[in-house]
Design a protein that fits this description.
The strands form 9 sheets. A 5-stranded antiparallel beta sheet has the order 1-5-4-3-36, with no helix packed on it. The N terminus is likely disordered. The chain contains 1 helix and 36 strands. It is globular. The chain is mostly beta strands and about 425 residues long. Helices cover about 0% and strands about 45% of the residues. The termini are far apart.
């Protein structure tokens, strides 16, 4: 175990991360019923805004809630049966809801219209649209280089589309997509690179140990493969183009057309959940060492420097969950601890910059589907849910303080948002 480094000021973290900007969860969702209704009475007329307005989206047992990110006022309450998972679609307006046998498209209700050199921003009633991408056991959604990639765990189908193509309000249909099907179905993930090539996991229901690089186009011929990532799970991007995958014995890095393995110091040292930042070459990950645990509550996090392919383990002094990891606007590593505090770390040194009390101390539930305090970051603002009291807290990361708290109509589970 590495000792915790000395404390560094926040300004130093931000400066270091910005200077380096040129360098830079969980199992598959359960299937749910396909029925949905809106609890709002009729569609509201769009109103013009001074600028696009961010929205927050959260799931609860039996539906999805939409909030104004600035005021936390409710914007919509949408009924949707089953256990649902949410991910930003990548166009600053839509959220993809993994529900039943598809990725459903939820319109968060804010868009921008272009008229020559002028633009107008409108807010409308958020709604679950009729659009949906068919998927057997819909799983990971990845956004990178202007592309959104969907992975279907039940079939191994990978479907990719231009993120911005989903956002034009005049379009009634889904954007054009390219598809590829893995040799065998598995709980996987895929990401399309800037040059059109595809990185994806390879495995089956019994094991996932490989990551492959496939060529562009509909043929998707395999170019390169690494077999050094047992139990591969999750991905993240460091800086602009370095991609990492979590393994049960370290992390696999793809950079400059090559794979490199960073090994854990323990025989079993799993980094299955990661958070990257375009402002940092360092990837934040979890770190678990008990392969046989029903639920391990780790107190160490991993910091992987993709410039040097080196690993630093940092003891937090508190446990956390797979929904606790995030990144600040300058690449700061953020971890929501079960001590109730948001821990802000320098990603280069691992030093604790600040500790911001947010919620009462909590314990991670054994079932991964059960609600627990969840961290979501949008720019320099962090949002933390508190399911036990149905609250949502807003943290100004620059000031290091909680600036707003709101009561929610439902017990929140997953939490995400769009920039508007």
């Amino acid at each position: 175990m590495l000792p915790t480094p000395t404390v560094a000021p926040l300004a130093a973290v931000c400066g270091a991360a910005l200077l380096l900007s040129g360098c830079a969860p969980g199992p598959a969702p359960s299937s749910g019923a396909d029925s949905s209704t809106s609890r709002e009475a009729g569609p509201a007329q769009p109103k013009e805004l001074r600028a696009p307005s961010p929205r927050l989206v959260y799931t609860y047992a039996g539906g999805v809630g939409v909030l104004d990110a600035a005021t936390l006022e409710p914007a919509a309450d949408i009924a949707l049966d089953g256990y649902n998972r949410i991910s930003p679609a990548g166009d600053s307006r839509h959220v993809l809801v993994a529900a039943g046998d598809s990725f459903k498209v939820l319109d968060a209700g804010v868009w921008t219209e272009k008229h020559g050199d002028h633009g107008h921003s409108y807010a409308a009633q958020p709604a679950l649209t009729d659009q949906a991408f068919e998927a057997s056991k819909p799983g990971h959604v990845v956004r990178h280089a202007g592309k959104t990639v969907l992975f279907s765990d039940g079939s191994g189908k990978v479907e990719a589309f231009e993120s911005a193509a989903l956002g034009a309000p005049a379009d009634d249909g889904l954007p054009e997509t390219t598809t590829y099907t893995a040799p065998e179905a598995h709980h996987g993930v895929a990401l399309e690179l800037e040059d059109g090539k595809l990185l994806m996991t390879v495995g089956n229901e019994e094991a996932r140990n490989h990551v492959a690089l496939l060529g562009e186009g509909r043929g998707r011929r395999e170019i390169l493969r690494s077999q050094k990532c047992p139990g591969v799970h999750g991905e993240a991007v460091a800086g602009k183009s370095t991609v990492v995958f979590g393994c049960e014995d370290g992390m696999l890095v793809f950079k400059s057309g090559k794979f490199a393995k960073i090994s854990s110091p323990d025989a079993y040292g799993r980094m299955g959940n990661q958070a990257g930042s375009p402002a940092s070459p360092v990837v934040l990950g979890d770190y678990k060492v008990d392969k046989d645990a029903v639920l391990e509550r780790p107190t160490r996090i991993s910091l992987v420097d993709t410039r040097t392919n080196s690993l630093k383990l940092v003891e937090l002094g508190t446990s956390y969950s797979f929904r606790s990891l995030g990144r600040g606007p300058a690449g700061e590593a953020l971890v929501l601890g079960t001590d109730g505090a948001l821990h802000v770390l320098n990603p280069l040194t691992g030093a604790t910059v600040s500790t911001i009390p947010v919620v009462p101390a909590w314990q991670e539930p054994e079932a991964w589907q059960d609600p627990r305090p969840t961290l979501y970051v949008q720019g320099s603002t962090a949002y933390v849910s508190e399911p036990a009291s149905r609250k949502l807290h807003v943290i100004d990361l620059n000031a290091g303080t909680v600036v707003r708290t709101a009561m929610l109509a439902h017990t929140p589970d997953e939490l995400t948002g769009v920039a508007g």
